[in-house]
Write a structure and sequence with these properties.
- The structure is a single chain.
- It contains 15 helices and eleven strands.
- By secondary structure, the chain is an alpha/beta fold.
- The protein folds into two domains: 12-209 and 300-320, Alpha-Beta Barrel (TIM Barrel); 212-280, no CATH class.
- Strands 1-9-8-6-5-4-3-2 form an eight-stranded parallel sheet. It has a three-stranded antiparallel sheet with strand order 7-11-10.
- Helix 8 links the parallel strand 8 (173-176) and strand 9.
- Helix 2 packs parallel to helix 3 (56-69), helix 6 packs parallel to helix 7 and helix 8 packs across helix 15 (304-321).
- It is globular, with a radius of gyration of 19 Å.
- The protein starts with 11 loop residues before the first helix and ends in a 6-residue tail after the last helix.
Amino acid sequence: MHGTGEAMIATALTELFGLRHPIVLAPMGGVSGGRLAAAVSNAGGLGLVGGGYGDAAWLRNELSLLRGETKRPWGVGLITWSLRPEVLELALGYRPSAFLLSFGDPRPYAPAIKAAGSKLICQVQDLEQARVARAAGADLIVAEGTEAGGHGGARATLPLVPAVVDAVAPIPVLAAGGIGDGRGLAAALMLGACGAMLGTRFYASAESLGRDAAKRRIVASDGGNTARTRVFDIVRGYTWPGHFLGRALRNRFMERWDGREADLAADADAARTAYQAAVGEEDYDTAVVWAGEGASLIKGVESAAALVAKISADAEQRLQSATSFLR
């Protein structure tokens, strides 16, 4: 502490963007909108808008909203394998401080991102991807463990983070996957990360674009009733690279089709009509709620500012008390 009662954890991340807290909002597609990203940035973290597959109209609306609500650093994240040049140009036109790419080779897009003055953040799920990110000139690399909600790889956070730290040094590394409170942030720092990127915890926040019914499901769930699957990609018509599965809350749709992906794909058009109706009706026995194992730690819906302050303060307290283990 510095006499103000405010957490002051200084890392390469906080220095890179001038942050008060080493906390980054995961750019969850359709959930991390401009209002949530602005709230995280205004609270002293780094808010990232989740541009997902690159809906231009949605991005234009959310980035305009974000830019109007904060003067602090912020960024945008997009799915690399579906990124189109015109969407990249659109997003860069709003002059984000950071641009996150995940799920694909960032090298074709890195020069334009850097030329626009944005810091390049690359999210990776294994060591091979980490080396590609390093070759792309990433300013920051996110090591995403399989515990994360949404799409990811197969490596667990605890061993993946220090392995990536060692592989890409001196590039700073963020930890992601299953982190939902100050204990997870403190642990990430001890693994050599410079901060943590949180998704599911901010999904269940007041400012997220998630539906209230979906947020309630996250609060009522625990990490044990999430699973990795591709059935929601099949029914929504997204052809994800085969090694990326998505972690979501278990529901009746998943239980019906998991292991029967070929049958679902064969009747995808009919299934999609029913699925889209369920989304509109907020029927989450059918519609997906992407969520990670950190759901176990979520007890209620809170404001993003309260979450950033509480998580950072708890991490600082735990770091300060760590010397009590030494004799």
